Amino acid sequence: MIYDEKAEKLEQAGLYRRAAAHWLTVLDNCRDGLSREWVTRRRLWCLQQAETPPPLTDTFGDVRKAATELQKSMGIWQPDGNAFRKIKKHSSKEQAVLRGVKSRPKTD
User: Fold this and answer.
1) Which stretches does the entry tag as region Disordered (predicted)?
2) Among 42, 51, 77, 90, which is most buried by a count of CB atoms within 10 Å?
């Protein structure tokens, strides 16, 4: 096992690409095969750590569910998104009643 202070500090700082580049310079100075193999594995490990994970793909349903949970935790959730509407939506029963009231002929 080979110790290199600079490369290990870079790893601890999370600078894995720079650490991998430094391990490459250490590899040039290795004389025996076991040391070269160990440094090569360490360099590959640094490069694996440097890879960014694939981005998460959110669907509309996931975003909607997260927004609803957040609204409920804040105490502002109302059915059909009424908390964010100027004119509130009515249920189908209420709309039928309103239509019935509007369709009655006026009596004078």
Assistant:
1) 88-108
2) 42
Each residue's pLDDT, cut to its tens digit, for the chain (108 residues) gives 788 899 999 999 999 999 999 999 999 988 899 999 999 999 999 999 998 888 877 788 988 899 889 989 988 888 777 777 777 666 555 655 656 655 555 565
The tally of domains found in the chain comes to 1
C-beta atoms surrounding 15 within 10 Å: 16
> What pTM was estimated for this model as a whole?
0.50
Is 35 a member of any domain? yes
Q: Round to whole Å and give the CA distance between 43 and 9.
A: 14
Q: Which residue has the tokens 């193999």?
A: 37
Q: Confirm whether 26 is domain-assigned.
A: yes
Tell whether 45 is covered by a domain: yes
CB contact at 8 A, 77 and 83: yes
Would you say residue 23 lies in a domain? yes
- 30 and 39 in contact (C-beta within 8 Å)? yes
